[in-house]
Write a structure and sequence with these properties.
alpha+beta, Chloramphenicol Acetyltransferase, seven-stranded mixed β-sheet, two-stranded antiparallel sheet, 11 strands, about 35% helix, binds oxidized coenzyme A, Acetyltransferase component of pyruvate dehydrogenase complex
Length: about 240
């Protein structure tokens, strides 16, 4: 690949050189590796989280009494874990021998975290076997460790699928880069009240914009269509998450 030419920026105005943190350097190398190796496709959809959000609001005080902060994130982790179980074609990696796919029978979810030192992705293990409170508690612990630089190497390994949530910050959509050797990642943007047609009239519903990027060597568009429809159905009807 032709290198980007070196530029003397000082000729254009005042500058200062700031050292890159170790994490930023590792992230830069990983992003280039993933971007160049993985043929990406990104699909978009919206989940109607009106009922999920009403349920979350109704449980917030009780959750706080148990020491749990109930954001949309634990529901997203649970829904992703259920969708991976229901659509196992997403819970795979390409084997390095180029001859096999690795089908995983465990469900570990990576959580992209913005930290003072850069982007870190702690991994919440066996999310399919845990309830919302436990997921919320463990996710908060992992996020805090990531932000305090306390994550152990094994707490950043073994992910099957990553969730990158920019929902608290805003935006209507983005195309996340697959965190190889995982084959898919979900980008979450800010939920907004939007008019939805219910067959008779437009009604205000809380719509969550989602993007799923996947490795087209491992996953086909139809696989993503099935996975995404399952995921959106789980988020749109919170009762399904306990099934
Ligand atoms: N829509 C609307 N509101 C949302 C939302 C969404 N999609 N997601 C979160 N919120 C709200 C939360 O409910 C919370 O509000 P309340 O306190 O009123 O409930 C508020 O935003 C703050 O949430 P939070 O940031 O404390 O927690 P979180 O669980 O949403 O996110 C984490 C945790 C770690 C995912 C996030 O802080 C973070 O670091 N995201 C950045 C990820 C990143 O950098 N990705 C880019 C990588 S490139 O692919």
């Amino acid at each position: 690949i032709p290198a980007v030419p070196a530029v003397d920026f000082a000729q254009f105005g005042e500058i200062e050189l700031q050292p890159m943190s170790k994490i930023k350097k590792v992230t830069a190398a990983n992003m280039s590796r993933n971007w160049l190796n993985v043929p990406h496709v990104t699909q978009f959809d919206e989940a109607d989280i009106t009922d999920l959000d009403a349920f979350r609001a109704s449980m917030k005080a009780e959750a706080e009494r148990q020491g749990v902060k109930l954001t949309p994130l634990p529901f997203l982790i649970k829904a992703a874990a259920s969708a991976l179980t229901l659509e196992p074609s997403f819970n795979v990696s390409l084997h390095h021998d180029g001859e096999h796919m690795v089908q995983k029978h465990y469900v570990h979810i990576g959580i992209a975290c913005d930290t003072p030192n850069g982007l870190m992705v702690p991994v919440l293990r066996d999310a399919d076997k845990k309830g919302i409170y436990q997921i919320a508690r463990e996710a908060s612990e992992l996020i805090e460790k990531a932000r305090n630089g306390k994550l152990k190497p094994n707490e950043m390994q073994g992910g099957c699928f990553t969730i990158s949530s920019l929902g608290a910050m805003g935006g209507t959509g983005f195309t996340p880069i697959v965190n190889a050797p995982e084959v898919a990642i979900m980008g979450v943007s800010k939920a907004q009240i939007k008019p939805q047609w219910n067959g008779k009239e437009f009604v205000p519903r809380n719509m969550l914009p989602l993007a799923v990027s996947y490795d087209h060597r491992a996953i086909n568009g139809a696989d993503c269509g099935r996975f995404f429809t399952t995921l959106v159905a789980l988020l749109s009807d919170v009762r399904r998450l306990i099934l």
